[in-house]
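Annex B. Sample input.
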Amino acid sequence: MSIRNNTPSSIGPARLAVRWLEGDSPVRAEFIVMPLWSQESPHYEVVLGETFPVGDETWRFADVDMKNADEWRVIVRRVDENEVMTPPTGRVWKSARLRPYGQLDEVQLQAVEAELGTRLPPSYRRWLEQTNGAQPEMEHHVPGRPFVFIPERPLCGVHPQHPSRDLVHAQRVHRDPWLSPDWLVIANLAGGLLLLSLRVRDMEREGIYFLPDAGLSGPIGSEGAAGRERHIVPVARSMGHLLGRITPVDVSDLPPAEIVWPGQSGHSGQEAQSPWAVRPETESPWTLQPEGQPRFTETPAAPAPLLPVGQFFGTFYPVVGSPERIHRVRLGSEVWELDNQRFILWALAHGSGAPSAGRPWTVSAVRDAAAGQLPGVDTAPLLDGLTAEGLLVEVAQEKAVEFARRHRVGARLLGLGNSAEEPWLWSIGFFEHPMVKVTRTVYNLWERAPSGESLWALCQALAAEEREADATEPDLTDPERMLTAFLQDIHQLLVASVIYLEPLP
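Annex B, continued. Sample output.
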């Protein structure tokens, strides 16, 4: 039996209604039982999976599907003798984690209205009075909408000393060049602009809208505003309704990267640029980490991954018409010339082109992969030689920081930003042809790689910026956890030829 919010449902001997539902752990709801034989309506506060009485029967709070604070339904089932409970599978909306900046008094509100040249809609005005804007603690989104709230782009308030979160500054920079005064930009989101309608017909009922980045085109100024405003879409009927739909993006559910194989939509028709990338049997994208798996795992006995060090400089044929060839790899200031066997092992150390179901890419994995390409060859001494030369490095967990202090990341390809369809993923590749999609944290590390600093210095700097932005997630604020998570995913970036590793001078 499915019971929607604010909708009593008949279960035969009684009607059931749900007064409230909380999506935080544990998931709880208050059930109202309205029996047909009595005027009394007992209330029961029940945790998901628990039971409650309905006359002589027992019913279970079996599952939940919570899209947002205003749209949800719960599933109840009558408990029969010897029942085996089916585990809940429904989704649970989580309330937004926003940090308000403070409060505004009436004088401040009137002053900002004077600067804006308009009276603010009542509901939004009350929210601004109580919060003075708000900063997301982490990435948030409205499910099904192509934008993301990020800590660096908060909901605006009155902050003239901090333009990035000031309401008046947002109009000068983001509204006036693009839109008419019928709109108020209340946030510059990842993916576009969040707007409040100032049209007379919307002032009482309010109205929150969104203009995607793709709609910001055409001539600057009023002559292009009408065309741009045709791209505006409604999001929520009020500020309160919007806040009831915003939910944190679960970073653990996002793949850290996703390779876009040749033949897929959005990829160029050319072959992948990496000479060692092994194609999967089907040309479907694969994620680098199973959905729902934590981004950081503490596994003391985990085998040490094997990482290739050096930048591939190409294959050369020194003699015309001869099959003899050498493969050049730059390692610091030196260029190594590798024969075919040693190069195959070094190339295979970049990773496999197919999902590994969480299996770390170790010396053993490379030897297994090499068995098909170098049949009959004893690869152990060749791998030992490459390790001794510094072209391969085993990085045990306890040695990760030491490795990161002594090595830096080289970045290849172009940063393409995110998209309206998936604003939580950032693309790296060629113009209009993404090769790999990554999370914001991985993208930020890749973007900083050309600085020449060590990998450890990049993690420290990025974690410090997250802390300054009041982020609280340990995977974002602890440089060692950030490094560990990055190293868990690094082979998929290496095999896509997005990065390379090299020793510091």
